[in-house]
Structure prediction request, 193 residues.
Amino acid sequence: YNIQENLKEKKVFDWADEVLTYKRKDGKKVLSPLQDAEAALDSTRVAMKEAGTDISDILAKSDEVVNINVPALHSKLKRKLIDPIMSREQVSPKQRANAQKLQKYLNDLFYMDDLTQTPVVTKAGAKVYPKVEQISTVQSLQQVKSELFDEIVEETANKSYTYANSLKKLANELHGSIDEVVRTSMPNQYKSF
Prediction:
């Protein structure tokens, strides 16, 4: 769901009217045509905090009934974001490096070294520990998605636009996955939100 999709289905005035009817928990409208910019921003921040609390509550409830299939989600993201680049016959060195960087980021996002296990020592003498999943709940998946936005800002500031764009695609895919998990595991709560 995004604003552009919403506007395709509705007239702009209908959509604006709908947005102006949003209310906070205290019953006050989030936005009003008579608000100055500072009041509108303050009111929006309050509403965002309330919505964040609602989302957190829903995610906490979903963690009681949902198990994240980390290998399946990892594979899905790899298939959608990395494999199409790496499977091309002609891939520029920059595209290959970007895909490899994203692959490492994805691996590090979902898995970490299990330091409680005995490592395998490679021929070069490096210790390689078995991996363990580090995302186990919908809330942790949401947290990872939120942290991705900091990474996107940092990469954009470093002028790594191609990689930042890849991270944006990853964030969008994670958002869709979270939405799907909550929608399918808790349809009644999802509808009420």
Notes: The chain is about 65% helix and 5% strand. The chain has a mean pLDDT of 84. The radius of gyration is 21 Å. The beta strands are 111-113, 120-121, 127-128, 131-133.
